[in-house]
Structure of Mediator of RNA polymerase II transcription subunit 7:
Amino acid sequence: MDEDAELRNPFPSPPSHYTKYTTHNIHLLSLLKERAPQDVDIALVNQSELLSDQKDVPDWPLTQLEKPRVDWILEEPEPYYDVFGDRWFVKDRIPSLEEAGSLQLYPSEPHIDRRPHLQSILRSMLVTYSHLTSSLLAPPPTTSSHHDTQPEWQQHVEWITILGQNLMAAANELRPARSNLETMMKKQLQFRREETAAVHSKCDALEAKLQEIRASVDVMINEKQSISTRESKTVNHQPQPETSSSQAMLTEEDMLRWAEEIR
């Protein structure tokens, strides 16, 4: 009984076996690990025989000095550990009101919509509060009334307490889901921002490539225009054929002769 009270003490004393963790005992444990066969569990070997050349070998198993194995706890269906007389689950889980021994007014299944039940609880709380105010305005009980009867206002207070516990428990169960939803939405927003930045960078690269292509096309057009201008100038500077000039001179002489004949 004293040990249980000590475990529940907010400032408990060190465990009674802390005196076993001496330098000599820890050295014996290391020697036992070195001398024990590899294919045999160290807890099954005879430590007195293996450490016969050592002094002050304890009669209790030296394996008690080893650190506790966490994998043993995780192998349980619902892993837990006890600290100062209280049980804590490895996976953070809020116990339901039913598990805590209170009256639960909403379903425990997570896939069921709890909003109708919570609205009913809230309406019941408002109605009970109205009845509580009415009971407080009622005259006090007379001396002839039974003393064992619970006052009406106390019944309303107890019922309001149960309703408030249900509202707070439901809100606490929804709080992790809300934080998980916020984390998921933040990740999605970050992913979309990264995708948008990648699209913008790709568009900038394509626009730069188009500018290079346009510049190269402009250069090619300018080169073609310069080549065509040079060719046209070369054609204009070529001499005219002699037949055309002689024909033009004969035609003028004929016209002069014709004019003299008319005179």
Observations:
- Residues 242-250 have pLDDT under 50 and may be disordered.
- Residues 2-66 form one domain.
- The two ends are 164 Å apart (CA to CA).
- The longest helix spans residues 152-236.
